[in-house]
Amino acid sequence: MVDLDEQSIYARFDPSGLRHRLRGLPQQCQAGWVQGGSLQAPGPWPPVEVDKVVVCGMGGSAIAGNLISDLIAASPSATLPPPPIIVVRGMVFPFSLDHSSLVIHCSFSGDTGETMSLFHKSMDSSASVMVVAGGGRLAQEAMDNHLPLLRIEAPGEPRSAVGYSLMLLASAFKALGLGEMPNSQVTSAIDSLEQRVAGLAEDIPTQNNLAKQLALDLKDRIIAVYGGGLFSAMARRWKTQLNENAKMWAFYEEIPELLHNAVEAFIPPVGESQGLTALLLKPSVANDPLAPHYATVENALDRGGIPFKALAGEPKKSPLAQLLGMLALGDYVSYYLAMLKEVDPSPTPGIAESKNYLAGQTG
Q: Which domains does the chain have, with CATH numbers?
């Protein structure tokens, strides 16, 4: 079996250097925060009070919208509560847009077909429209229509730019008066992330490296990731990183919703016979209203004989620091699983083949 403490494996199985991009997450977050604050809009913008924010995107370009929604919900405003944030993945809006809607289209490439479809539909509405893109048709059409545009300036794959996109959105929301995020809290959270990443990097031995330990425990397992509250979307992020980086089967569920359906699959005996391991991502929150739900999930997993691991947010840290810390841990776990499977974590041939096939179907 691959030895995760043997440094030569990383150049062999990771020729594009994803490990370096993982190490650069704190700097990426700082750059996104600065970039988001540079938002330039035509006069007072949006021109009217916003009653909902709609974030449109797919894959790694969409998850930042879910993460920022959880972050703002976990960081109560001292003034008025912010408008709801709704993430749309697909080709059509499941609701109508009006003059009090703010629609943000996110695409790393700027050429995502589904996002372009939503962009054109939003341009036909009375909504305020903003674009976050790395280039492509989306950025060009934003400039042609004189829309507020924030450039994604991060290296690598769309999923590797999530920290950048998250902090870019957080900073833009602050600039637009849609959320409160003190600079001191951001600085503290990124400092905490620096320490987190330093303890998870490939040169830290397994005995001191939580991500390597988890990867060894999860190898050859089917993984179900559960999260609630601050970590609702984080469960989804872990699942997609396990899919894309480690090329593994993984699923996610939200707490408390899973207690109304998925728990029926926990009836014993299930765990070992199906090769399943559950991961519970638990925010460290004082008087957490979801604490009884987490305890109930753990009890149900125990009764079903399903192996599980509870991973808590760092105690006494801000919601932002906990979110970034759990983001880094999930990225590293999926990376080390790829190393154990002796696969390059960066390419996504399945996604590329599906896009090519889809292009042939749609002409």
A: 18-181 (3.40.50.10490), 203-341 (3.40.50.10490)
Question: Residue 155: what pLDDT?
Answer: 85
User: Is 127 in contact with 99 (CB distance < 8 Å)?
Assistant: yes
| Residue 229 region by backbone torsions, left for phi larger than 0, else alpha for psi between -120 and 50, else beta | left
d(CA 48, CA 30): 30
d(CA 190, CA 290): 27
Q: Name the token pair of 253.
A: 């569920």
Q: Which DSSP symbol is given to 250?
A: E
> How far apart (Å, rounded) are the C-alpha atoms in residues 308 and 310?
7
Place of tokens 């192996």: 307
**Predicted pLDDT at 48:** 81
Distance from C-alpha of 255 to C-alpha of 229, rounded to nearest angstrom: 8
Instruction: Name the nearest CA neighbour of 170 among 140, 142, 132.
Output: 132
Tokens standing for residue 318: 């801000």
Interhelix angle 162-175/25-36, nearest 10 degrees: 30
Ranking 41-50, 145-154, 192-201, 342-351 by mean pLDDT, the lowest is 41-50
**Phi, psi for 104 (deg, rounded to 5):** -115, 120
Lowest mean pLDDT among 10-19, 42-51, 149-158, 201-210: 42-51
Listing DSSP states for 39-73 in one string gives ---SSSSSSS--SEEEEE--THHHHHHHHHHHHHH
Other beta carbons within 10 Å of 360? 8
Q: In what order do the strands lie in the sheet with 308-312?
A: 250-255, 222-228, 276-282, 308-312
Strand locations in 240-307 (E) = 250-255, 276-282
pTM of this prediction?
A: 0.95
pLDDT of residue 270: 59
By the 8 A CB rule, do 240 and 63 touch? yes
What is the C-alpha to C-alpha distance for residues 20 and 16, in angstroms, rounded to an integer? Answer: 9
* Residues pairing with 227 in the sheet: 254, 281
